[in-house]
Amino acid sequence: MSQEKIIEVKNLSKKFGSFTAVDNISFDVYKGEIFGFLGANGAGKTTAMKMLIGISRPTSGEVTVAGYDVKTAAEMVKKSIGYMSQRFSMYDDLTIKENITFFGGIYGLSRNKIKEKTAQLVSELGLEDAVDKLVGDLPLGWKQKLSFSVALLHEPKIVFLDEPTGGVDPITRRQFWEMIYAEAHKGTTIFVTTHYMDEAEYCDRVSIMVEGHIEALDTPKNLKQQFNVESMNDVFLKLARNVE
């Protein structure tokens, strides 16, 4: 992890009528960092992420992602990032190969590059014998791994993962995080939202959102020391009680 800021957020807010979903949050993310964006369901994590990736316009505040202002250069932001939604985003009625080819085309890769990336991805995931299998026939864990790999096809500077391990078994969750570690080691920044507090232990730093606010931001080790607890789940429970 370097000290180069790749995401800069200052006084970011999002309102829907009289409801404030994200309330004046500020933070930075560094190149090559695994940054955990934690909180319970409904805390504002996904709303904030949508503003960061340029698909939802902030009500107020400033956001720079990969050097681009999300308000004035949203399309450049989208070209610089990878994104994996909490709902599996690949096409069940297409084969693995067809999905890779389709998304490679969306990312603007040449035919030769798509062919090269397909062979590399299939080999890394050990899917050589399933490349012509419909994605809809794959187990959820394999779908998630494939979706993550496809989000990296165009070698983005940052990958945004929205609840990537929801619904998968513990072994698959661990394997997924090993893929995240490997990618971060290459210098890719990983921005991940999750409500699984144990996954905070895998991050370099974490922020914890409660009711639209960032109530804590530091390394997991420092947060546990600060709140004098043994787990990130206990940190979250303490914060939630304090807000109440």
TrEMBL record:
UniProt GO molecular function: ATP binding; ATP hydrolysis activity
Presence of the UniProt keyword RNA-binding in the record: no
Signal sequence residues: none
Protein topology in the membrane: Multi-pass membrane protein
Pfam families listed in its UniProt record: ABC_tran
Protein location: Membrane
Gene3D superfamilies per record: P-loop containing nucleotide triphosphate hydrolases (3.40.50.300)
GO cellular component, one term: membrane
Keyword ATP-binding: yes
Keywords in alphabetical order: ATP-binding, Membrane, Nucleotide-binding, Transmembrane, Transmembrane helix, Transport
Chain ranges of the ABC transporter domain: 7-236
Protein's recorded name: ABC-2 type transport system ATP-binding protein
